[in-house]
Q: What sequence folds into this?
C-alpha cells in the first residue's frame, strides 16, 4: 500500500470532478491517501492504483465508496456558531414574523452532509421557537451522496460525532443511546426530510424556501458552477428569504440581488425585492 | 487560561495536557477527586476543570458536587470527560453542576469546540503546519 | 471455565439466559466501540480488521470489571508492539522512549474506554472498576461465562476483546 501515483491522482481528480463538481486541489494529494487507504485495506486490495483500476473497469460500488470517502467530512453540530446565532437573533425572528399568517416555514440545508446542520436547526426551532411547533415545517436536507443522505436520515451518530459542538443539555434532551450510537429523538427526526441532490446539475422544479443554508460547498466549484448554483438558490428563495453561506463565502461578484445583512457575528444574504 | 485535568489515567491526563497545551492553556493535573479539591484549594482558580467519572478515592460525580458547594468556585466551568454515557447518569452530572460533557472516545477537535460552547476562547497559538486543515471542504 | 467455552475466531458464544449479555451488547457494537477509540486517538492509522487466529502469545492484557445489574469483566489483550504504539499516541511520545508503566497505563485507558462504553449500554444500575493491566498471561480466577471473544487485527498486530459474565442479571 504505497502512495498514489501522479497518474492515479490525476484520474481521481477528474473522477471526483465528474461525479460531484468538486475540485480536488493538487496540494490535497495527501488526503487521497488518508481517505482511500482504509478502503484499500477493507477490500483487500494492494494499492490505490488497484482502486483506480477497479473504478475504470466499472465497479459501481467502489465508485460510490471512493466518492463518499473523498467528499464526506466529519461535521460539527451548530458548526461555527455564528450562523446559528444569526438564525436565532435575526433570520428566524424575521421569517417567523413574515409567516405568522401562513403558519408555514421552509428551510433547506443544501449541503447537509450527515445531517448535523439540519438537525441543529431543528433543535434550535424546538428549543427557542416553540411558536412554530404547530406550523407546517418543510425542513429539508440534501447532499450529493445517497450514502451520506441515508446516514442523515438514520439520525444515528457515534460518540466521536456527538461530541462535536453539541451542547450537553441538547445531548441529553434530544438523543437516546442505542448500542454504541446516539440517535436523535423521533419527534425531531420526523420533522425533517433528506434526499440526494446534485447542486451542480440543473435543478428540478421544486418549492421555494424561507432559508437556504449553502455552507462550505461553493468553494469547491468552479466560478461558472458557483454562479449557476447561487442564481438558482436565489430563484428558490421566497421574498425576504435568507441565504447562509460559509464564513468568508459571498455571492458578491457572482450574482446580484442579495442584500448583505450583518447577523450573529457573520454576514447573511437577504433576497431583495 | 488555566485548566485542571482530573483523571486516574496518566495517558488521558497526558493527552488532554497536550491538546490544551497546544491551545496555549496552562494545565494542572490530579489523579482523583480528592487531589483535585486540594489542587483547586491550593492554587489560582482554574477557568475549567475536566473531570473523569470513574476514579478511586472520590469519583467525578462526587467531585462536581463538592466543587459546586463552594460559592467562590461557582464560575469555574466543569466538563465531564468520561465513558459514562448512560442517560440518567449524564443528567445527574449536569444537575450536579457540570456545564459540559465529553464522551470518551473524543477527537481532539471536539475539545476546542466544547471550549467555545463554554465561552472560553484560548489565545490562538501559531502552529507551523504546512498542510493546513485536513478537510476537503 | 473451560476451553470448550472458547469460540472460534470472530464469532461469539451466545448467552443462554434471556436478556443476557448477547441480547444487550452485540459483537458489532463492541467492534464499533473499539473502532471509535482508534478513530479518535490514532486517526491516521485507524483500521481494525477482523482477525483470523488467536495469537499464540498475548503479551499484554488489561481488564475492567462491571458490577450491579450485570456483572462481568471486559478484557483486552494485544501485543507489546501494538500497546506501545497506542501509548505513543496518547502520550505524544516516540514509541521507543516509553517505559513499561506508560504502555500499560495506555492499555488501561483502552480497556476503560471499551469497558466503560459497554457498561453504559447495560441496564442501570451498574458500577465500573478501575482498569487493571499486566504483561504476560492472565489468570482464569473466577467461574464465568465467556460471552464474547472478538479477534481483531491492527496492522497485523492482534487485538483480542473478551467479555465474561459472572452471576446472573438482576430481575427487572
A:
Amino acid at each position: 500500500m504505497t502512495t498514489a501515483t501522479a497518474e492515479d491522482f490525476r484520474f481521481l481528480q477528474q473522477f471526483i470532478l465528474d461525479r460531484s463538481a468538486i475540485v480536488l486541489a493538487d496540494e490535497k494529494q495527501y488526503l487521497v491517501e488518508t481517505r482511500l487507504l482504509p478502503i484499500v485495506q477493507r477490500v483487500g486490495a494492494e494499492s490505490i492504483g488497484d482502486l483506480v483500476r477497479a473504478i475504470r473497469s466499472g465497479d459501481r460500488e467502489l465508485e460510490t465508496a471512493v466518492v463518499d470517502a473523498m467528499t464526506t467530512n466529519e461535521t460539527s453540530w451548530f458548526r461555527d456558531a455564528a450562523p446559528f446565532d444569526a438564525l436565532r437573533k435575526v433570520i428566524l425572528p424575521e421569517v417567523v414574523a413574515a409567516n405568522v399568517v401562513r403558519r408555514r416555514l421552509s428551510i433547506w440545508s443544501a449541503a447537509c452532509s450527515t445531517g448535523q446542520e439540519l438537525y441543529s436547526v431543528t433543535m434550535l426551532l424546538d428549543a427557542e421557537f416553540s411558536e412554530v411547533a404547530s406550523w407546517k415545517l418543510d425542513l429539508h436536507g440534501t447532499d450529493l451522496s445517497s450514502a451520506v443522505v441515508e446516514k442523515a436520515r438514520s439520525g444515528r451518530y457515534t460518540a466521536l460525532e456527538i461530541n462535536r459542538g453539541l451542547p450537553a443539555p441538547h445531548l441529553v434532551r434530544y438523543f437516546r443511546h442505542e448500542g454504541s450510537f446516539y440517535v436523535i429523538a423521533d419527534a425531531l427526526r420526523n420533522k425533517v426530510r433528506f434526499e440526494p441532490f446534485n447542486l451542480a446539475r440543473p435543478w428540478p422544479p421544486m418549492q421555494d424556501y424561507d432559508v437556504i443554508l449553502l455552507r462550505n460547498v461553493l468553494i469547491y466549484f468552479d466560478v461558472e458552477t458557483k454562479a449557476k448554483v447561487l442564481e438558482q438558490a436565489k430563484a428558490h428563495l421566497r421574498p425576504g428569504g435568507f441565504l447562509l453561506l460559509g464564513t468568508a463565502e459571498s455571492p458578491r461578484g457572482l450574482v446580484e440581488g442579495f442584500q448583505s445583512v450583518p447577523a450573529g457575528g457573520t454576514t447573511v444574504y437577504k433576497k431583495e425585492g | 487560561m488555566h485548566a485542571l485535568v482530573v483523571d486516574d489515567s496518566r495517558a488521558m491526563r497526558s493527552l488532554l495536557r497536550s491538546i490544551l497545551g497546544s491551545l496555549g492553556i496552562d494545565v494542572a493535573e490530579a489523579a482523583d477527586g480528592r487531589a483535585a479539591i486540594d489542587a483547586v484549594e491550593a492554587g489560582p482558580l482554574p477557568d475549567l476543570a475536566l473531570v473523569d467519572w470513574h476514579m478511586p478515592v472520590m469519583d467525578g460525580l462526587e467531585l462536581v458536587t463538592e466543587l459546586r458547594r463552594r460559592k467562590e468556585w461557582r464560575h469555574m466551568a466543569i466538563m465531564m470527560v468520561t465513558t459514562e454515557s448512560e442517560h440518567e447518569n449524564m443528567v445527574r452530572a449536569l444537575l450536579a453542576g457540570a456545564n459540559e460533557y465529553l464522551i470518551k472516545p473524543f477527537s481532539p477537535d471536539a475539545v476546542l469546540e466544547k471550549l467555545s460552547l463554554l465561552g472560553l476562547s484560548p489565545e490562538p497559538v501559531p502552529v507551523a503546519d504546512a498542510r493546513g486543515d485536513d478537510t476537503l471542504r | 471455565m473451560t476451553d470448550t467455552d472458547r469460540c472460534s475466531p470472530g464469532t461469539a458464544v451466545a448467552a443462554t439466559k434471556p436478556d443476557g449479555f448477547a441480547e444487550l451488547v452485540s459483537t458489532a457494537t463492541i467492534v464499533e466501540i473499539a473502532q471509535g477509540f482508534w478513530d479518535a486517538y490514532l486517526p491516521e492509522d485507524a483500521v481494525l480488521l477482523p482477525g483470523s487466529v488467536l495469537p499464540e502469545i498475548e503479551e499484554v492484557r488489561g481488564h475492567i470489571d462491571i458490577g450491579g445489574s450485570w456483572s462481568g469483566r471486559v478484557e483486552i489483550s494485544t501485543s507489546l508492539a501494538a500497546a506501545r504504539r497506542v501509548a505513543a499516541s496518547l502520550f505524544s511520545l516516540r514509541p521507543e522512549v516509553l517505559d513499561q508503566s506508560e504502555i500499560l497505563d495506555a492499555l488501561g485507558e483502552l480497556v476503560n474506554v471499551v469497558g466503560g462504553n459497554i457498561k453504559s449500554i447495560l441496564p442501570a444500575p451498574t458500577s465500573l472498576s478501575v482498569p487493571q493491566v499486566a504483561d504476560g498471561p492472565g489468570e482464569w480466577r473466577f467461574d464465568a461465562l465467556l460471552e464474547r471473544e472478538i479477534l481483531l487485527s491492527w496492522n497485523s498486530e492482534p487485538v483480542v476483546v473478551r467479555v465474561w459474565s459472572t452471576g446472573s442479571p438482576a430481575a427487572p
Summary: The longest strand of chain B covers residues 77-82. Helices of chain B lie at 10-21, 33-42, 60-69, 87-96, 108-117. The radius of gyration of chain B is 15 Å. The interface with chain A takes residues 85-87, 90-91, 94, 98-107, 109-110, 113-114, 116-117, 131, 134-137 of chain B (CB under 8 Å).
